[in-house]
Amino acid sequence: MIIGIDANEANSSNRVGIGRFALELLRQFYLLRKEKSFRNIKFYLYLKEQPGSDLPEASNGWQYLVFGPKLFWTQLALPWQLYSQKVPLDVFFSTSHYGPRFSPVATVVSVMDLSFLYFPETFLKRDLWQLKNWTNYSVKKAAKVITISQASKADIMKAYGIRNEKIEVIYPGIDADLFNDRQETAEKTRLRLKYGLDSDYLLYIGTLQPRKNLKKLFKALELTVKTKKDLKLVITGKKGWLYQDLFEKREAKKLKGKLIFTGFVPDSDLPSLYRQAKALVLPSLYEGFGIPAVEAMACGIPVAVSDISSLPEIVGGAALLFDPYDAAQISQAINSACYNEKVRQRLIASGKKRAAFFSWQKSGWRLLDTLIKTAYA
């Protein structure tokens, strides 16, 4: 069997969300192909650029094909390659929700969430047009759609009129060797110096964009620091759409000196950043999954999240829930997660158990099984 994969999402720098999902699944495929039951499977990985050092090395049964033109790659270059190559595929998998415009074999596409339909005002017009149109044809033409939560599955079924059995939910995992509650004094000191962490802090991790609801979080922080004056908010994530006015809040009188923007943080720094935080808060208005919540629970800190979208499903009762539109509720959750010791210990214990449920090995096996079944359908 030969499985073709659009690996472009995994072949990028500063990966978040779908990029991390894609890379981890490719790594699992690379390991799984060595098992006896999968040794007859070969993988062709299609790219616009040469594979980066993070991708598994090319080897027997693991081949990279790099070609262009880059413009409209999934519309033109990829279909041409699939139809013209001498060795035909058995199934094609796209790590993004853009499948090939035309394909000689069954395709499987990944759709993390439909934020572009729920919050269109947060996207550039050009990007929004592409997201709407290319996702629409990709999902409807696909033999199977992969998504990352039951909440996202329900959204996809509603938006595109797709039957239940066409969509497979495969949860992302976490690296348990990286994200755990082991404290290291030297690492703690290094991180505090690097990011200027001079007091207790609440942690937010995610792209800076409107649907992440940071303005409401800032309002909640204003309420919290009236009594907890030493608490700061560390905001970790790369700049997204319409982020500029968030930085102005740093100089606002009520929050002056209370906000620390770290920018994108490498994976090597993340575990210690989690472990030193009083708690993680995710006030998002919409999430396909919310992997920082799982990583934080694995690192042994309390978690508080919005009570909408996929987040209640993912935390599974191991976190505090709040109405993301209510700053007072968010502030109350922050106070409980950071300063109520009885609540903290309960959340830490239940969070570790919940985090253990998510495994990249499990995710990779389920996805590979889905691709094999789709090829033989």
UniProtKB/TrEMBL annotation:
InterPro entries in UniProt: Glyco_trans_1, Glyco_trans_4-like_N
Glycosyltransferase subfamily 4-like N-terminal domain mapped to chain residues: 114-177
PANTHER family registered for this protein in UniProt: GLYCOSYLTRANSFERASE WBBK-RELATED (PTHR46401:SF2)
Keyword Transferase: yes
Protein species of origin: Candidatus Gottesmanbacteria bacterium RIFCSPLOWO2_01_FULL_42_22
Keywords annotated in UniProt: Transferase
Lineage: superkingdom: Bacteria
SUPFAM superfamilies the record matches: UDP-Glycosyltransferase/glycogen phosphorylase
The protein's name in its UniProt record: Glycosyl transferase family 1 domain-containing protein
Domain Glycosyl transferase family stretches: 198-354
GO molecular function annotation: glycosyltransferase activity
Record-linked Gene3D superfamilies: Glycogen Phosphorylase B
